[in-house]
Amino acid sequence: MTHEEHHEAKTLGIGKAIAVLTSGGDAQGMNAAVRAVVRVGIYTGARVFFVHEGYQGLVDGGDNIREATWESVSMMLQLGGTVIGSARCKDFREREGRLRAAHNLVKRGITNLCVIGGDGSLTGADTFRSEWSDLLSDLQKSGKITAEEATKSSYLNIVGLVGSIDNDFCGTDMTIGTDSALHRIIEIVDAITTTAQSHQRTFVLEVMGRHCGYLALVTSLSCGADWVFIPECPPDDDWEEHLCRRLSETRNRGSRLNIIIVAEGAIDKQGKPITSEDIKNLVVKRLGYDTRVTVLGHVQRGGTPSAFDRILTKDVTRAMDERRFDEAMKLRGRSFMNNWEVYKLLAHVRPPKSKSGLHTVAVMNVGAPAAGMNAAVRSTVRIGLIQGNRVLVVHDGFEGLAKGQIEEAGWSYVGGWTGQGGSKLGTKRTLPKKSFEQISANITKFNIQGLVIIGGFEAYTGGLELMEGRKQYDELCIPFVVIPATVSNNVPGSDFSVGADTALNTICMTCDRIKQSAAGTKRRVFIIETMGGYCGYLATMAGLAAGADAAYIFEEPFTIRDLQVNVEHLVQKMKTTVKRGLVLRNEKCNENYTTDFIFNLYSEEGKGIFDSRKNVLGHMQQGGSPTPFDRNFATKMGAKAMNWMSGKIKESYRNGRIFANTPDSGCVLGMRKRALVFQPVTELQEQTDFEHRIPKEQWWLKLRPILKILAKYEIDLDTSEHAHLEHITRKRSGEANI
């Protein structure tokens, strides 16, 4: 990267003007996007304007179009809805209105427009751009603008945010606000289900989605629903029979609670609506169950339906109108199909009656507890049972495997586990090596033919030890797969671990509360210590999401000079209208520059200018109910791992027994870019820094410069990494409901 290119990033915008508007329905996360656009715009040297009240403000002009400053977007991150307002606008739909809007932009020299919004707003922007040159010539003819102004503004650039901010993993296409809506829905579902456990009840929940079953589908995976109705995939004609049979089967298996999720646009194969009331009446009439309907309308705080009705390509709508439902599903994309397949397996396939059991697979948790572990265990167990396997659960990790703390799990053993935090099986950090004798004996005793290990760095190192042990013990020659689950997100072979999203949300919620607590006071700096071992993922991502001034991590060494620069930066910041500072420190970023040291340094240097406070977040980061993302991620990982396991066991069957000793029979199942991939643990060894328990290369380090820009540091941004900007828009707006 040359010096010239670095310099370029900071001069890219000089002489240019950008206008930002939000339109269509409110969606949480819009403010975060506005803040990032404004600050990166100012960083590049451009002038940035807020357009208040969406397209209406663009048409009306005047005070509705105001220049934005760095400070004017402070404290916007945690607010729901949209701060600059997002009126829907009839005027802009008429050419006359668009003519006035063009006039307002040209007069201010604005030729770049950033539109953040739902359905119609991006279509409107597109029309505006295609007509731009005609609008300018009309304005010039009527004498409203000069020839010179027309030439200067001859080209209009438009960037639309939301369409689908690709959430960078699982390929679940997310729009800004979708994840926040899920958080709202899941909070309600969790509250309802706890009351229902005490009475036998059936709940019918209606969620938003007139043309799109995304929210309904992901909600049903997140709460382990018995059935989901979505517009893209109408049920078979005998669905009433099937549904009632399904509900009575789960009741007979001991379940006290049935959950049915309905998208508001659900239809049958003939295109006739299926409403939540229809379903309630059916269940009451046929089965006599106590049934309640809850319509989760606008609980999503500020969210109007269109913000969540994914901006549908016209193709999907057309396919649905013409009842070509298979095609509608395909057009939705790979991730939607995957979600649907997992849901169908977990909800609709009946486990075989016979207990003969094809193979015996054991499931265990290793390392520290992480939210989502139980969801992974649940889907592993149930997919295993569906395949006709015998599934065992091991308590207390490798220690329990050595001591024989092993029992068989049936279908209802894992009932209701999806939303539970921590580890129900119990988990320990103990590694297997010193207990190979006892472990081998128990593998034989319980006839274990495959192991699913759900856990953090110890699960991975434990896997490596098992590979090593195969040389001495034939019993260890069975396939195993590691599902990464740790708040630290430090397992080699995976960009994400189950549990990290929940930890990130917890940290961000805490940071938001701490920042808000200071909103009334003058000049205060908070120093917050996060977990993560030597891995700086949580500190960095929480720093981006909560708008931190600095995030100290082990992977990016820092000196006393850096600390001094940060203190001086905060002293300067306190002279502006922003009177708060937030500094995050990863627990093991530096053994000498401890949280106390940094706190003392800031306290001394900030005397008379700002107060300092410190806060060590501790184990609250591991706990709590898993976020929708972690529930779904864990559920998909469990299903994928068990499918792989069945294939591997069949492959390894020789002379009446299992014998697996190839490198590819011991894998980590990881999320890489947008795919779930199985990687042999032995191949991941070179990619691991064992002393510090982190992968040698970590994708999120590329996001660090953006953290500094958003905190107004004079730094160089590598503009060649266009792709990495998408993480940010997504991170703040999609995954973390902050």
From TrEMBL:
Give, as one word, the top-level EC class: transferase
Q: What is its EC number?
A: 2.7.1.11
Task: Explain what switches its activity on or off, per the activity regulation comment.
Answer: Allosterically activated by ADP, AMP, or fructose 2,6-bisphosphate, and allosterically inhibited by ATP or citrate.
| Residues engaged in binding ATP | 25, 88-89, 118-121
Q: Where does Mg(2+) bind?
A: 119
Q: Which InterPro entries match?
A: 6-Pfructokinase_euk, ATP_PFK, PFK_vert-type, Phosphofructokinase_CS, Phosphofructokinase_dom, PKF_sf
Does the keyword Acetylation feature in the UniProt annotation?
yes
Q: Where is this region: C-terminal regulatory PFK domain 2?
A: 360-738
Where does this protein hold beta-D-fructose 2,6-bisphosphate? 429, 486-490, 524, 531-533, 587, 613, 619-622, 693
> What is one GO cellular-component annotation here?
membrane
Coiled coil where? none
Q: Where does substrate bind?
A: 164-166, 201, 208-210, 264, 292, 298-301
Which ranges carry the Phosphofructokinase domain?
18-315, 361-644
Function (record text): Catalyzes the phosphorylation of D-fructose 6-phosphate to fructose 1,6-bisphosphate by ATP, the first committing step of glycolysis.
Instruction: Spell out the protein name for this chain.
Output: ATP-dependent 6-phosphofructokinase
**Species this chain originates from:** Capra hircus
